[in-house]
Amino acid sequence: MDFLSPPSPATTSPLSPDEEKLLAKLEAQNRLLETDSKSLYSVSGVLHSPSAPKVFSFEEESWNIWGYIVKEWDDWSKRKVKQLKEMVRRGIPHHFRSVAWQLLCNSQNAPVRKQYSQLLKMSSPYEKVIRRELTKTLSHHTVFQGQDGLCQKPLFNVIKAYSILDKEIGYSQKCTFIVGLLLTQMPEEEAFSVFVMLMQEFRLRELYKSNMTALGLCVYQFEGMVQEDLPELHSHFQAQGFQTAMYSADWFLTLFLSSFPLSLALRVFDIFLCEGLEIVFRVGMAILQMNQEKLMNLDLEGLTRYLQNDAPHQFVSDPERLIAAAYQVKYNPKKLKKLERDYTTIKMKEQEDQEEIRRLRSENRLLRQKIETLEKVSTQRTKYSEDLVVQMEQELMQVRLNEAACQCALKQMQAEILHLEKSNTVHSDENSVTHLQEQLISGRLREAESLTELKELRQHIKDLDEQWQRRQIDQWRVTGAKGSVESELQNEVMTARLGETHTQALLRESRHRLLQLETQKQIYEKQLRRVEQENCHQGELVQRMTAQNQHLREQLQGNRQEGQDSETKTKDVMHQEEADNMTTITKLQRKITELQAEV
């Protein structure tokens, strides 16, 4: 999009005979002016001597020509564009300026002209801001001085109406300068129509958009011209940190109205309606060229003050001199086109960078949120780890208590086993089968001895009886004393009977003893069976206790291993989580540092 030129006029058509006569007359007049040393105009058609008096004949001729131009506007705007531009460069007479501006903008047929009264009845969200800033606009012009100035109310109405019409632009303080300039030449309704055409058809609204892309392009192109045509001054600006936008932005936004006198602004605006923003480039370069020596000796503060306040007033008395210098400036449209392409590339790269920055900032925010989340998780994990450590310590303590209990139970079982073994040994000593058999054999031997004694006793009695019978026979044979022998025999029989009785008593005692021994034998046998059963039970109990002991040992070993594994696992988990958190935090901090460096 080309912001330097106004809408292109129609193609030039052949001139009529009357027009050719008028053009020949104008060319003859121009040649006379060029050869006249006292003429206001030089060969280039611009002001040559600031002190030369005006030539009435030329002014009168200019009035006649502009009257003819206005009358035959359609013809001039379509077929005599070059001649029309030449006349505009030389200046539009004051009384024709209002009509000429409207014709140049083609605002008579603008549809918004009929909407103006309706827009004034509506309310704008910018009304308070517009009222507050109106007094700052063209304060050097009497019609805009104070809140009760002649043009203050029309200025408010036009700005308000446009802020309602164009909601994207709304209100911009720099627009007020353009509207104020228009109100110095025409009524508010016509000024509104011209302003709308300027914003839409002349694309001025592109300069006032919030993204400032069009304004940035103009500033970039102007800086390129300064760098190419005034390299020393450009280097001085760069050394002082004085940016081109600090002084040139207002020139493009207000067409020099913010700091230059109204007389120069009118001349610039005349040419702007024919040539577009080209005149701003030319006049701006002319200002820098004419003041280069002065600017080279100023610092940042001096440069700002000079280009914004001081320098414009040097041309108050004669703006034609600045216009003449402007048309001596090297103006290369191809160079500007190349700068426009470069700026578009830079802007696209800048947009990509901005998108990348926004993405990186978004990533940065996400990373920060992630870091905060990780810190919270780390804190929670630390707390959880502490709780887990406490729990594991409690479990470990419980395992150790169980281990101690198992060891105590094991010792008790070992002591009980030893006691049972000792008890079995004692029982085996006292109640063993061998001992009982020996006692039984001893009883039977005693019984056999008793039987033997009884047999011996009976044999003795039999022997005594035989001996007594033999002795009785012998004595009877010898003595024949029957009475004494009977007495002795009775004594011996009595004695034998007593011995037999005694022996029978001993026999009965032996039988009684044998019965006791048999009873004791049965008792011992039953006791032996009980001992054997108890030994079997104790053996089973020992086996069971041994198995239980082995199981407890295995459980104890498992508890120890589980405790060691739990401690190792807890330490590994804590170390791993700590290492992961440190690694993550380090990566995130490095990423944040890189993002901050890139931003």
Would you write up a description of this structure?
The chain has 599 residues and is an all-alpha fold. The chain has a domain at 388-598: Helix Hairpins (Orthogonal Bundle), CATH 1.10.287. It is 77% helix and 0% strand. It is built from 21 helices and no strands. It has helices spanning 17-35, 56-71, 73-79, 81-90, 94-105, 116-120, 127-133, 152-165, 173-183, 188-200, 213-229, 231-240, 245-254, 262-275, 278-290, 292-296, 300-310, 319-326, 333-430, 433-478, 482-598. The protein is rod-shaped and about 230 Å long. It starts with 16 loop residues before the first helix and ends with a helix.
Outline the secondary-structure elements.
Elements: H1 17-35, H2 56-71, H3 73-79, H4 81-90, H5 94-105, H6 116-120, H7 127-133, H8 152-165, H9 173-183, H10 188-200, H11 213-229, H12 231-240, H13 245-254, H14 262-275, H15 278-290, H16 292-296, H17 300-310, H18 319-326, H19 333-430, H20 433-478, H21 482-598
Region (Disordered): 556-578
Biased composition (Basic and acidic residues): 562-578
GO molecular function, one term: GTPase activator activity
